[in-house]
Amino acid sequence: MATDRILKASSVITMNNAQPRAEAVGVDTTTGTITAVGTLAEVQAASPGVQVTDLGSEVLMPGFIDAHSHPALGGIVTQAPAYWISPYMGYPTYDDVQAFWKKLDAELPAGQALLFNGLDRLLQGAPELTNADLDAFFSSRPVAVIDNSGHEAYFNSATIALNAWPDNKPPADPVGARYGRNADGTSNGRAYEIPAVLGAAGKVLAEAVPHPLQSLARFFQLMARNGVTMATEHTYESNLLKGYEACASVSEALIRVALYHMSIEADCGEKIAIAAPEGMLWKQGIKLWADGSPWVGNIASSFPYLDSPVVKAAQIPLGPGGEAMMNYTRAELDQVLAKYAPMGWQFAFHVNGDVGLDVVLDAYEHALTVNGLLGTDHRWRVEHVGGCRGDQFDRAASLGVTISMLPAQFIYWGDLLDGQMFPTEIGSQWMRAGDAFRSGALVTFHNDGSVSPPIPLLNIQCMVTRRTPSGTLHGPEQQVTLDDALKAHTINAAHQLFREKDLGSIEVGKIADFVQLSADPYTVDSDKLTEEVKVSGTWVNGSKTDPDAFLTRIQSIDPTEHPDLAAAALSHKC
């Protein structure tokens, strides 16, 4: 390795326990490798004559890692030309959404199809829409609105006409999904679960988002601008491969991506040949779903929802749903794990409810035992785990199961969860990060793609303080240290993705992926972390990234080379 670049910062936070702090980093930009870490004098002495890039008062850390994401879907449904109407994207109430809809319909060309993502019945007080509701805003243009959970969609009469369903009656319900129907069998403008959502909204999607590769690139831009250098695609299917290869192969590439193949795909157990630079794109494992979303009432939990105004307005069944909300029976889980565990794949299981996690851990323990994997470094995963118990994390740790948590559930819904959706003893403890770390399990944080904006610093702030953006404190016993929270987005995440040997910390011999921060997170008030610490940029393979140049390069690619990207990306459940 030959050092040809030296970066000096006010501090280098290495996330390496053996050398927690440094002043300078040497890099070989040809190989993208870190060659030296230490004081400026030490690094210069090892490579005399190399020019120093002085970052002044700014700080370097390992690049943030989003351990569970959906960049393809995230880009297509949230980035222009689609519209992101989530409450935390500037539309806090349904009145705000309605005003935006009226404005758009008046300003845009007649007949232009529109795709919206992020309507939230709980946070915005929106009803479960019908085609008649949407016709009041969009009388002629095709429109589809995807619920923020990703599990439902609403569409207008123009979309029903575009779909050319005979007599306006939807086709037979797909397996695991259904269309909303009026008493006479005609569509009521609703679709539940992704196969039906795609069947209802697919044509609108194709018209509204003609260049989906650019949408994927824009989501990568968004991630990079928030300090992310590595992420995942947790609902990979083969039709996404070319799009990810394109984004990974340009010289301006921003994000490394680990692929988790959906278990519902027939080829999910197969290895794949990837045409991309080494280490930028790889298949890591297989993704499964235990239950659904807390925001639409289909999580497998032992506790009911409160009979409250906010729950009634969102038309959520009180429950508890228990095992009836599972997407798999235990026997089906055993079959899937028995088939793919001998192939060596890592498993990642979406689960939100405590009943769901009990079933998943039972199935994991059985499969690990049968396959002789207990006590091995398998790193099987559970995802989200918002409503799960602390003792379940202890059990996960004993099995070697890693935990990837979704702080957004606490950040954006925490004020509702605590006392409005659930009793305080449940809601205040939602997303038990403190218990998870205390269990000894490997813990990571993520943003889940289109479910929330990819902002690691906000995840870190709220898991350290247990305060929502309103300033309200919920469950202070679930606070974590700043050090643990930073690990969850760096070295722990690299370990969960089997990349800890070359990423996740700043050490000699590792890859030079960094996030550049305006201030040291350890020196500011944790309650003001996102105010006082800003992302100034990212470095990949030792070179400063340029998100605008990356998008320009992707825009030069012929979109007809990726005709299936949009439909494939939408075939997902978070």
Outline the structure in words.
It is globular, with a radius of gyration of 23 Å. It starts with a strand and ends with a helix. With 574 residues, the protein is α/β, with parallel strands linked by helices. The mean pLDDT is 95. 33% of the residues lie in helices and 21% in strands. The strands form 3 sheets. Strands 1, 2, 3, 4, 5, 20, 21 and 22 form an 8-stranded mixed β-sheet that branches. An 8-stranded parallel β-sheet has the order 6-13-14-15-16-17-18-19. It has a 6-stranded mixed β-sheet with strand order 7-8-9-10-12-11. It folds into 3 domains: 5-57, Urease, subunit C, domain 1 (Roll); 83-208, Diaminopimelate Epimerase, Chain A, domain 1, CATH 3.10.310.70; 213-560, Metal-dependent hydrolases (TIM Barrel, Alpha-Beta Barrel). It is built from 22 helices and 22 strands.
Topology of this protein?
Layout: E1 5-13, E2 21-28, E3 33-38, H1 40-46, E4 52-54, E5 59-62, E6 64-65, H2 71-78, E7 83-84, H3 94-107, E8 114-119, H4 121-124, H5 131-135, E9 143-147, E10 152-155, H6 157-163, E11 178-181, E12 187-192, H7 194-208, H8 212-225, E13 228-236, H9 241-249, E14 256-262, E15 281-289, H10 309-313, H11 330-340, E16 346-353, H12 354-370, E17 381-387, H13 390-399, E18 402-405, H14 408-417, H15 424-427, H16 433-438, E19 443-445, H17 456-465, H18 482-488, H19 491-496, E20 514-517, H20 529-532, E21 535-540, E22 543-544, H21 547-555, H22 565-570
Parallel strand pairs: 1-4, 1-5, 6-13, 7-8, 8-9, 13-14, 14-15, 15-16, 16-17, 17-18, 18-19
Antiparallel strand pairs: 1-2, 2-3, 5-20, 9-10, 10-12, 11-12, 20-21, 21-22
Helix pairs in contact: 2-8, 6-7, 8-21, 11-12, 12-13, 17-18
